[in-house]
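[Meeting: bench + compute handoff]

Bench side (C.D.) handed over the final construct sequence. Compute side (W.E.) agreed to return the predicted structure before the next meeting so the bench team could plan truncations. Sequence as handed over:
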Amino acid sequence: MTRRELLGLAATVPIVASRPLFSKEAPAAPVSVARLASYSNNDEILSTVLTMFDQIGGLERLVKNKTVTVKMNLTGSPAARLQGRPLGSTHYTHPKTAMAFVFLLDRAGAKRIRLVEGCFATNAPLEEFLLDSGWNVRSFQALSKNLEFENTNIAGKRKGYARFKVPGSSMIFPAYDLSKAYEETDVLVSMAKLKDHVTCGVTLSMKNMFGCTPISIYGDDAGRDEPNEDPKSGRGAVCHEGKRGPSKSAPQEIDRKSSRHPGYRMPRIVAELAVARPVDIAFIDGVETMAGGEGPWAGKGRCIKPGVMALGTNAICTDAVGTALMGYDPKAPRGKAPFDDCDNSLWLAEQLGAGTCDLSRIEVVGTPIKDAVFKYRA
């Protein structure tokens, strides 16, 4: 980071820091924490997740007769492996936890279950991406007759996209154009992994939702005026670095003079998405995962087995607990781990009224945090 970038970034921070808090105290919701040593026992996975739902009020009340969209975390190419390990044991949603969710959602009476992801640099069907990732798609289809799959990088069979406005004072974009799958949703589930993130400090249920931004609009090769329905790139130029804008069909940045530093931009985009399209069920899998980054491309990535999961109905509260389970302070400022070179997206989301990251206001049920902490930085 150059001196000019540092000074430019410093000049912008007080604007956000001095922004009045949301008119009402940010909401708090219970979070369930459970220990699970491995993925080896399917019945144990099912019973553990079901118990977690029971601890926060039950699953049926949330999903019965509703359309449930499950945003998985399948970041990067299926060919990218950390130390040759299975994708679900490092940086991808594990197929066994996904299967447990589909089974439980169907049993709880969901009328439609839709698995979605913005697959890495492609408009290929999600089923193909899952097959490339080693998933048994037919096993998923056997769990529910109401199951669908969708790659939300493109409009697909639908015409156009749905616009989700950022309520209150936005920081980067005033609104986001997303797949209509997210509009045709009663209950949105974010299935995240318990991971560090090079740009955002941590990637949990909130950061997982960044993958809902379609690369047809927010990708490096997005169309200038209209979405590119045959995209082949990531989102670095538009979102991380702000070198170009999204397709002009979508809302543009509110301030092109703001910092271009990814550690400034990305936490704000994550926070905006948390209020533009809120998560209804946040699940964080830390049974087997990785530390040191969000994927194998992170130079200091290493395989770990924290043996823990977290579940809640407020993404910010759940992520606050998840951050604490990693041995970090969820209210840490920029410059303090894990937010070494970025702003704290949890705190920013709290300022937008999405939820609290104050652990003293969050009821933790099941296993106490102190009994489940796995320090990502020893």
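W.E. noted at the follow-up: The longest strand covers residues 187-193. C.D. will use this when planning the next construct.
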